[in-house]
Structures are given as C-alpha cells and as structure tokens.
Design goal:
The protein is of the alpha/beta class. It has helices at residues 8-46, 57-64, 98-109, 136-146, and strands spanning 86-91, 112-118, 128-131, 150-153, 167-171. It is built from four helices and five strands. The relative contact order is 0.13.
C-alpha cells in the first residue's frame, strides 16, 4: 500500500516556525537591554554630583581635597626570647641537607628546632618565613636573622601540622 506524502508546505513549517519564535525572543531581549541601558544612563546623568572628569579637572580636584594619611600598623615586636621560639624547618628546594643546614644556623642563634623535614612542594625559588597568629614579631626577627625577605602568616598549613612550632622556615633555592 502506498502512503501519500504530506503536502510540501507542511514539511517547511516546523523549522520556519521555530526560527520565527527564536527571532521574536531575541528581539524582545534586545528591546529589554536597550530600555534598561537607557534607564541606567539616565539615572547617572540625573545625579547632581556627577561631573565629567577631564585631565584638566583632576589636578584641581586633587588640590582641593586634603590628602588622607594612611594608617600604617607599627611593626610587630618579638615578645618571646629566641630560646622560647620553636621553629619548623622545611626543605622547599629539593637539595639534600638544605633544611638541616638552616636548622643548624637557627640553633646557633638560640632558636628551638621543632622539626626538620621536606616541604610539600620542592619548587620554592626563594626562602620564606611563615608565622602563626600572634607571632608576627618572632617571624620578622627570625627572617631578619636569616636574611630572608619574605615573611607572612601561615599559608597552606594548619596549626596542627606545625607540631607545636610558632614559626616555619621554608628553605628555597
């Protein structure tokens, strides 16, 4: 039994209808964006303090306002003696004995060594000192004693991983 084909017009309508619906949705979205954008621009223009800034008006505005003084926190002062500060020394450069040598230098300065081990990563280019909360002064002093420029709070380690140490030294390349 032969089945007749539907008329040719019925095969075209589904995709044509979908195209018209998609175009209508896009046109409505465009219209909404234009209306919202115009409203935002009108609101900016309506604010009384809005002035267009030009290069010529910037120095005058800067001169009219007094400069704010930045509050700089005083540097942290070490409260504990070196003999009371426990240090965890981590080898972060992969060279055998680097952490041990740093630990010996710290012992010679009077610090307690809480442990000497490898850092989780061996790609540290520079040495750094990390301190627990409340021991910023001790961390700064230790960094100064070793000639390390990078000092900051604990990053990437939990206090439980320190085994009681107050400060961590990561020996870099």
């Amino acid at each position: 039994m032969d089945h007749p084909l539907p008329p040719p017009n019925t095969l075209i309508h589904p995709w044509r209808t979908a195209t018209l619906v998609a175009c209508a949705v896009a046109a409505i979205e465009l219209l909404l964006l234009v209306v919202l954008g115009g409203a935002l621009i009108a609101r900016e223009a309506a604010t009384p303090n809005a002035k267009p800034r030009t290069k010529a008006s910037r120095p005058a505005a800067a001169a009219a306002k007094p400069a704010r003084a930045r509050k700089v926190a005083p540097p942290a002062v070490a409260e504990l003696k070196r003999s009371k500060v426990t240090v965890l020394v981590l080898n972060g450069n992969g060279r055998q004995g680097a952490a041990g040598a740093a630990a010996e230098r710290l012992k010679a300065r009077g610090y307690r060594i809480g442990g000497v081990t490898n850092a989780p990563r061996m790609d540290h280019v520079r040495s750094l000192v990390m301190h627990r909360r409340g021991f910023e002064g001790e961390g700064t002093r230790l960094a100064r004693d070793l000639g390390i420029a990078i000092v900051g709070p604990l990053d990437g380690m939990r206090p439980a991983q320190l085994h009681g140490a107050h400060v961590v030294v990561v020996v870099g390349a």
